[in-house]
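# nightly structure sweep
# worker-07 picked up a monomer target from the shared queue
# config: single-sequence mode, recycle default, output format = structure tokens
# input follows
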Amino acid sequence: MECVDDCEVGPWSNWGTCIKNNKTCGYKWGLETRTRQIVKKPAKDTIPCPTIAESRRCKMAKRHCPGESERDPNYYVYLPNVQK
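# output follows
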């Protein structure tokens, strides 16, 4: 019977900063991510390593960025004038 070398991963990092579109403000919701490192790669033809990164939805601390209007022009969707 052969000994199988399974993947080993380290502990999860702390959750990262809540961001959306590379910003920490300007939105109500964003994503935060945490990661872990592969400590030992698995032997060939064995079960792959488990997930090493995961993200979850988070509420952003400030909804509007300093110096920006409270009404984000990108919030509104342009609807062309439709003729009947």
